[in-house]
Amino acid sequence: MQEKGSISIHTENIFPIIKKFLYSDNEIFLRELVSNAVDAVKKIQRLAAMGQYSGSVGEPQVNISFDADKKTITISDNGLGMTAEEIKKYINQIAFSGAEEFVEKFKDAKDANELIGKFGLGFYSAFMVADQVEIQTLSYQEGAEPAHWVCDGSTEFEIREGSRTERGTEIILHINKDSEEFLDKYKLQGILDKYCKFLPVPIRFGTKPHYESFDEAQDDNGESFDDAHDDKKPKGKTVEVDNIINETNPIWTKTPTELKDEDYLAFYRELYPMSEDPLFWIHLNVDYPFNLTGVLYFPKVKNEFELQRNKIKLFSRQVFITDEVKDIVPEFLMLLHGVIDSPDIPLNVSRSFLQADSNVKKINSYISRKVADKLADLYKQDRKAYEEKWQDIGLFVKYGMISEDKFYDKAKDFALLTNTKKEHYTLGEYKEKVAALQTDKDGTAVYIYTNDPDKHDSFIQSANRKGYDVLLMNSPIDSHFVHTLERKLEKTSLKRVDADVVDKLITKDDNIPSVLTEDETKKLKEIFEKAIHRPNMKVEIEGLSPDELPVTVTMDEFMRRMKDMAQLGGGNMGFYGAIPDSYKVAINGNHKLVSRILKAGDEAQQTQLAKQAFDLAMISQGMLTGADLTEFVNRSIELI
Ligand code: ADP
Ligand code: MG
Prior knowledge:
The protein is an alpha+beta fold. The chain is built from 21 helices and 21 strands. α2 (28-49) packs across α6 (185-196), α10 packs antiparallel against α11 (405-411) and α16 (518-532) packs across α20. The site of magnesium ion (MG) has 4 residues, from α2.
């Protein structure tokens, strides 16, 4: 029996196109062929389970080997095999509707995945690396004849009687000149490690081109094929038992009740050997309206610079697809680690597919909801432990609240605010805590915060003396979080502690009167204006409590935020970037130093004292530098 035929596409040179175009990720040929082999094994198991195959299934096997001299890579399986008819049906009739459409579309395709996915080219990815591909196969069907298919990458193929005596399929790739790099143990191992590490059927990898037959009698006792790791040894002649390179039952395929913390941690360490242990994890498991399993870990991150995206691995039926999970996982959860597996996401995902797919959208919100539920649980179960982890968890929670309204609505009950005394409050608790003292004359609650407790120490002390609480907002994400809180909380505004002198931070009716006369106020203003003499600093004489500092330099909250925004926006925000720094220099008219300045002997002395008081204010905020600092030191020495 021998037959020649033509693969049903009408463009002669389609394979050179595929080959050339897909060059950059041509390693996925192995993923495609190994997953076909795994599918074939699964299918025979299923047929046997349904009573449609009465022979012995045997120990499930997928073997990968290569021969550097013959320049071949072989993928073999003891799956269901194919008849010659089936080869013609499944292999020869490439699943795309026409060559014209293919040529039309391949121009826009971004990557091999997209192309393979669109046109069902899984098997044909072999031609990315091979000049010639052979199939030796024997179907499970009764009376089936072995078949041998050969194709050299043109549209011509040959099919004849095969030599295979065991049920299953062997794909032999004759590697082309450009792809000889794949004839290397480490190269292949690396690819298998990446894509095949968690496949559900044992994968063996070695240098022998063929595996020998196993004595199948041992399976007649009806043992489960999932127990593939037992000590059954193949019987045969010179069989080298190659290492099984995969873990067939990774934790995400198990139910949470089967697993201990140690199992989750061990899996984490396996995935991310260099990382610290995670804070906690979430086991995802849903089968309606879509099918999804997985484990997501909250990594321990000390600062945002360590944050790494693309640490979540996406699988489809245990075949690794990608670690770019954008679109599947909500943006703010991209910082999580772990594994997601969904057969509803096709093996060959492409960006455009994901964005349009409704399952993907559902998966996205499912994950977001699960994460929120888990956090709510942790909070309810053990508030103290939760508070201890807040430093790390807070990052995710805040990020989520900033970027997703739905998540905000859930998180508002377990998000914590931390003050400079390191006390934690929920949003509700905090509102109550500060209501009495920190509500202004219009009924707006004013939350005071610092992003730099060391630098703002004198302001914080002043605020605390007045009974005001100061929130710690010192991580980079907090500047955004401040905006979110302001947007979401009713009648609440946030002010940085140095936005004004403490008596003005929260506008109330009970203004402290100044002890100075109008003339004295005018005079004092002149003295300070002359002494400071900086165009971006506006002197104001204010009636503050006598125990407040004599001079305070502040920048208005609104102004400062504009500047912060300009800094974040970099060069793109030329307009904001052009805003000069502008400060208020508040002189406490009720302070005794101030009355001393007024009463000082001559003008020179007045200026000197005013300068000194101003410089001290600047120093306490770390704003005095360069020549100004030198001048201050010299003046101080003189005064002493
Ligand atoms: P897909 O896997 O998406 O169906 P492929 O191009 O990878 O597309 O494979 C085409 C078909 O060829 C498969 O559906 C299967 O019927 C058949 N096939 C490929 N490899 C094997 C194999 N190792 N054993 C049995 N059948 C196979
Ligand atoms: Mg396939």
